[in-house]
Amino acid sequence: MPGTLYLIPNSLGSIDLEHVIPAPVRAFSAGLDSFIAENAKTARAFLKMVALTHPLQTVLQQIEIRELNVNTRNSALPALLEPLLAGKNVGLLSEAGVPAVADPGADLVRLAHAHGITVRPLVGPSSLLLALMASGLNGQSFAFHGYLPTDSDARAARIRQLEQRSRQEKQTQIVIETPYRNDAMLQALAMHCNGQTLICVATDLTLPSESVRTAQAQQWKREVAASRLPDFRKKPTVFLFLA
Question: Fewer Cβ close by (within 10 Å): the C or N end of the chain?
């Protein structure tokens, strides 16, 4: 009988797991001896933090950690399922937040379903949902689009397209950006959105430096022109807007 693939959330950057990862999730993670993670070093750091409150059932050096990241070819996925097909329970560990959402792992989860492997998601922080909760924008209808084009003209066209969709469907649009390009993203949103469109910038969620602010595009445009940007340079940030 196949094992179960457990989807294990990680913190969004905090080193204090106790306040962001539920105790049952930490306890369960401490009992596994096989993981799939984006980066083995980061996964071991997560397990060391888990061990502060829940002793590991297997010596850390003996825990198997296989890597799955953006460089992993689809042809390598079946091999990652071998322990599961042999009856072992395996944890799919995110680098930050929850696995398979704005994070590698969805293809592996789909393949697990195709092989009749039980998949169980565990509770933990999702930056996308936390940002939506705190934004004040429409939480009944929303869409996540990942990264927008880096080319300025293509990005502007995409923003206008998404704003039109937001207006027609009353739908919150959610995007992310590489942290060092946060300023360029906010400038593009402020410039290309209608002045009345609401834009939310949510940075460092769950961290002591957390910041969430929602304002109209025209207000953001004034602040961008005055070089009063949020303190979000090189910090994980979620952008949301609603026309």
Answer: N
For 81-127, the pLDDT digits (tens) are 999 999 999 999 988 999 999 888 999 999 999 999 999 999 999 99
Do 103 and 148 fall into the same domain? no
Contacts of 136 (CB under 8 A, 6+ apart): 198, 200, 214
DSSP 149: P
Q: Is 73 exposed, middle or buried (0-12, 13-18, 19+ CB in 10 A)?
A: exposed
Closest CA to 185 of 222, 214, 159: 159
Question: What is the pTM (predicted TM-score) of this model?
Answer: 0.92
Q: Do 47 and 153 belong to one domain? A: no
Question: Does residue 117 share a domain with residue 8?
Answer: yes
In tens, the pLDDT along 207-228 reads: 999 999 999 999 999 999 999 9
Instruction: Choose the final residue of a domain: 61, 87, 121.
Output: 121
Q: How many domains does the chain have?
A: 2
